[in-house]
């Protein structure tokens, strides 16, 4: 018999709201207020999420971010910066003790990422897991999609989804970005480079490293189509049934309060002393 998990379809919200809700999902699961849950969401306005320990001052072009109307928010999870624009974003919370979850972070990625693999298949896209040649590979790039990590998804050898994971209170939180379209000019405008020439070279090289759903298919999928495909994908990949979970007025107040006091707070977003 399939296990039932919660499904939150929270739509498009501000970067601060999105990161606050991901954090609170972990807390609610810890308190027993929800069970294992998957959430899908978008970003309005577009946002740049920076890794928990990333130095934003050295990597982000704040003037360009303001010009594009992109808001900056720091994630709880580590890793490099991600531009969240024309994409489907997912988050998963599940107890570390869940029988389907391996103890190691790397192997837990492999289990959760089966949902991504099946989601791409629902769209007619053949994808595979990334197995890096060296876990010690270094890169100076601040851009998440410049490099694949273990069990992230590749399409035609290019990174198609970027994910990050953390564990707290015995709970796994994994969230990630599934680009529907990638505007590489906008993306690289938002990051700082020593010169325009270096930025141009990095942008050209990026074309061989990352791919969006629409570039992979030659079609023009929209958010709702991608969301439906990945909902089926997670159900199939994890062997679960997703049941809609509505956010009460009280929970919405809680989310907005945390967004205002933490994720829109400059001390959180720009300090690396976490």
UniProtKB/TrEMBL annotation:
Record-linked CDD domains: LplA
Keyword S-adenosyl-L-methionine: no
Keywords assigned: Ligase
InterPro entries, alphabetized: aa-tRNA-synth_II/BPL/LPL, BPL_LPL_catalytic, Octanoyltrans_LipM/LipL
PANTHER family, per the entry: OCTANOYL-[GCVH]:PROTEIN N-OCTANOYLTRANSFERASE, OCTANOYLTRANSFERASE LIPM-RELATED
An example Gene Ontology molecular-function term: ligase activity
Name of protein: Biotin/lipoate A/B protein ligase family protein
Annotated BPL/LPL catalytic domain residues: 32-242
């Amino acid at each position: 018999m399939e296990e039932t998990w919660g499904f939150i379809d929270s739509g498009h919200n501000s970067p601060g709201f999105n990161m606050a809700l991901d954090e609170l999902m972990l807390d609610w699961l810890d308190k027993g207020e929800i069970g294992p849950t998957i959430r899908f969401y978008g970003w309005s306005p577009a946002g740049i999420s920076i890794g928990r320990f990333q130095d934003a001052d050295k990597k982000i072009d704040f003037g360009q971010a303001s010009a594009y109307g992109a808001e900056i928010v720091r994630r709880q999870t580590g890793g490099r910066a991600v531009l969240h624009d024309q994409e489907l974003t997912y988050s998963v919370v599940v107890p570390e003790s869940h029988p389907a979850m391996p103890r190691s972070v790397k192997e837990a990625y492999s289990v959760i990422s089966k949902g991504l693999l099946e989601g791409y298949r629902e769209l007619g896209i053949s994808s595979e897991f990334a197995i890096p040649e060296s876990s010690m590979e270094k890169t100076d790039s601040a851009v998440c999609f410049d490099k694949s990590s273990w069990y992230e998804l590749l399409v035609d050898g290019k990174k198609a989804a970027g994910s990050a994971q953390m564990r707290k209170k015995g709970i796994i939180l994994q969230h990630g970005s599934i680009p529907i379209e990638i505007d590489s000019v906008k993306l690289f405008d938002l990051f700082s480079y020593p010169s325009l020439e270096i930025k141009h070279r990095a942008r050209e090289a990026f074309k061989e490293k990352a791919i969006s759903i629409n570039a992979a298919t030659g079609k023009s999928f929209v958010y709702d189509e991608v969301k439906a495909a990945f909902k089926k994908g997670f159900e199939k990949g994890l062997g679960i049934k997703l049941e809609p979970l509505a956010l009460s007025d009280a929970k919405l107040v809680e989310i907005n309060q945390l967004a205002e006091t933490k994720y829109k707070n400059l001390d959180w977003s720009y300090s690396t002393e976490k």
